[in-house]
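Milestone M4 deliverable, item 7.
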Amino acid sequence: MIKFVDMFSGIGGFREGLTRAGGFECVGHCEIDKYANRSYNALFDTKGEWFIEDARKADPCTMPDFQLLCGGFPCQSFSVAGARRGFSDPRGTLFFEIARLVEARHPAYLILENVPGLLSHSRGETYATILNTLDRLGYGVEWQCLNSKDFGVPQSRNRVYIVGYLDERCRGKVFPFTETTGTALIQKHGGPQGKRVYSPEGLSCTLASTPGGFGGKTGLYEVGVPIKCASKTGYQLAQVGDSIDLSYATVNSRRGRVGKEIAHTLTTGCRQGTVEVRPVKNPIKSDLARNTERTGKPGAPMHACTLETAFADMRQTKEQWHKPGGVQGYHLVQSFAAGEVTPELAHQIAKELADRVLGGQYEYVIGTHLNTGHIHSHIVWNSVSRIDGKKYHSNGKSYVTEIRAASDELCRKYKLSVIDTETSHHVAKPYAEWLAEKNGQPTWRTAIRQDVDEAIQQSLTWRQFLTVLERKGYEVRMGRKYPVLRPPGKERFVRFKTLGKRYTPEAIQTRILYPRTYRPYVENTPVVQHSRLRSEKKPRRKLTGLRALYYRYLYELGALPRKPRRPSYAVRQDAYKLDQRIRQMEFLSKNNINTLAQLETHRQALQTEIRQLLTKRKQLPKTDDVQSQRESVNTALKQLRQEERLCRKIAEHSIEVQQHLTEARRDRAEQQKQEQERARDRRPNIDLTL
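Output delivered:
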């Protein structure tokens, strides 16, 4: 009897094979995966055997006597399905743990297994290292790639098997194996993965560790449909394409006759049919709907849980739908004004809210608390639906449009107070816009609101309002669910309601009819200091080129003295880029750059300095005594790269700035023309003829 130790045992593939071969006895095993080890202990009698979880912690002195060490060391580092990091992967170095134990105990035989990619990894250098290690330990080694399908196993699993021995008499008596008995995978019916039908006479599909979907993504197998008949077995198997005759369902001798790819005599009763393959839905859904123990009655949706079974019920739902991870549940607090509601009514409203929001699909539990001055209810619900297994998804928009809207509606139903603020009807803003408004910086929506306010002041009717906006370059579309407008120069439309509560079409019409009720829109804009931009050399002559362009642009934005009366939208839409434009202008003034050619020359000089510093840093030795020198080089590189990137942005943005200034001049000319026309219209028409 040869005693062996099963390293990296998994669920016991090596052990089962050696047990069936006979003459082998397992005295211990090693497996770090707790679930695989649990299966191993359930399949084999391991009582009293040596065991350790991590091979790196195995002490050779504590191991029992054994003559054979077998195991399939982790293959993820060498498989073509992974990153193939080899020995650089911690899992790939576990072979050396085998070598460590072998060097200490010197078993007579070794049997190792791994993927065929081990032979070609790193152009064969990895496998050469393994062979050299075993040769250094005194073992003769033979190996061969074998497929399980060639040995009567209904599964294709190609692996390289390495056999080592101390007795030289074993040389040439292990490999190669030449006889094969394998068959191929026989597909009977096609379709997507998980719905294909295979013949049980061929190989099985590769089994996945995390299957999902109908058929576990391994395929279904054609076994036939048993039809009761008067035969020795009592039934006939109907395959796909066979006919089933149910014309004599009450006669035992002729009940359910099966025609092999042929139909029996047709009758007027139309009681014959054929077998065909159709995908079906997961049966768990229908079973849950019929579960009267949890749902109350057949077909009824699941509602509230009890406090005693809530956790177990929700956990069971996750396991049934194979979704135990991720977000486990959601928690909502519904609070009421002090002294406005009774505990019973608060609990009733919370239950109605849960039923309305969750639609009877998610288990929930409610707790109404009286420990504060405000009666409030806690609603906790499962993240996985018990009806269809879908996960609940929540965001800022769904909270406002669904949960909060439903809560406000229920409160109004019971004549309770509702918190109504301007942000109550707002959806979530983009982070950049939210941050700009928080810091008091203008956004591109600010310019739209200001133009809308001006149009309201100049209008007496809704039609006039639309005309004024169109005169400003806006395109307005009203014949749709959500009225929208598009500012000049923009590609996308903006909904009126996204501008704020005061900018919906209904609110605008009210503001036109009752102008004194509303104040014009004022946003917390930063205080602009009207002072000259600082530079090393003050321009004493008329500026030209890029610097003149940027000075004019900042003048239009109001960053320079003599702010214009009303900047154009083409300029105001870039107000949030003010800091960036000032930084670009200061850079141009500091380096006395007036043209794009000068800018390009400066950028090339910066690139040359960057390359020189990179070469210098590369030549520095990686020691601690030059660490300060390396840090100074990195600091200089960072500064140069920022300046080089600033040059590229100036070259790109200067074209945009020129376009905006052109649009601003055109808008100002149009405004002056309109003002002149209005002034001419206001002149009294006096007839001086006698």
